[in-house]
Design goal:
Residues 18-83 form the 6-phosphogluconate dehydrogenase NADP-binding domain. With 227 residues, this protein is mainly alpha-helical. The chain is 55% helix and 9% strand. The strands form two sheets. A three-stranded mixed β-sheet has the order 3-4-5. Strands 1-2 form a two-stranded parallel sheet.
Length: 227
């Protein structure tokens, strides 16, 4: 292998798990052979993947990043250097945790709003066009109102997506940092949803946790809400 060669896996590994440790070891071993290594996970959802407009978060040396930039540019229009090997994965995990927090917030707010007497379609319209909107709310709330929870048809299965929260908890523990309270609350909602057997449904199905607690059913029609 020549010195200009760079290995750049872009799947997501899990924080301080054996998989991530193996990735760092691979970087060291490849470096001894003159081959660069980058961890380059991506974010942006399937539509942007198809369009080649993803965002890539890259861990590794700037020299190796510049060598790999033409390849990364075939699927990512934004390529961000995050520091040393492993930091790309950490940035991806934190990004996904923020997304998961917004999904859990949606799951709490819809049943609360309905129980408080707000009409579901109007409330969802207000949030998705106002300052309370988020990628998670905008993505899942309309599907909740249609009671469409199928995965992978409408999104990644919740059980498989749980790894990002576990990654952040592991990273916090490894560095002696507290788990952020909003992440801890989101983790609790995820765990309750999985305990209810919702792991094969998408993240919007977390709403069922709070529907059960508040005795409501979020839907786009009054008839459905009374079921």
């Amino acid at each position: 292998m020549g010195s200009s060669e760079v290995a750049a896996p872009w799947s997501t590994s899990h924080g301080d798990t054996e998989e991530a440790v193996a990735e760092r070891q691979a970087a060291q071993q490849l470096g001894q052979r003159g081959v660069g290594f980058l961890d380059a996970p991506v974010t942006g959802a399937p539509a942007r993947a198809a369009a080649g407009t993803l965002t890539s978060m890259v861990g590794g040396s700037e020299k190796h990043l510049e060598a790999a930039r033409p390849f990364l540019g075939t699927f990512a229009t934004k390529i961000l250097h995050m520091g040393e090997v492993g930091n790309g994965q950490l940035a991806k995990a934190l990004n996904n945790c923020l997304y998961n927090v917004s999904c859990a917030a949606m799951a709490e707010m819809l049943p609360f709003a309905l129980r408080a007497g707000l009409p579901m379609p109007a409330f969802v319209d207000a949030v998705t066009s106002g300052t309370g909107q988020s990628f998670g709310f905008n993505q899942w709330a309309p599907l909740v109102l249609r009671r469409e929870f199928e995965a992978p048809k409408h999104g990644f299965p919740m059980g498989a997506a749980f790894k990002d929260l576990e990654t952040l908890v592991a990273a916090a523990s490894a560095q002696g940092l507290p788990v952020p309270p909003v992440v801890a609350a989101t983790l609790a909602t995820y765990q309750r949803a999985l305990a209810m057997g919702l792991g094969e449904e998408h993240k919007g199905a977390m709403v069922k946790v709070w529907e059960a607690q508040m005795g409501v059913r979020c839907s786009g029609t009054e008839a459905e809400q009374k079921k």
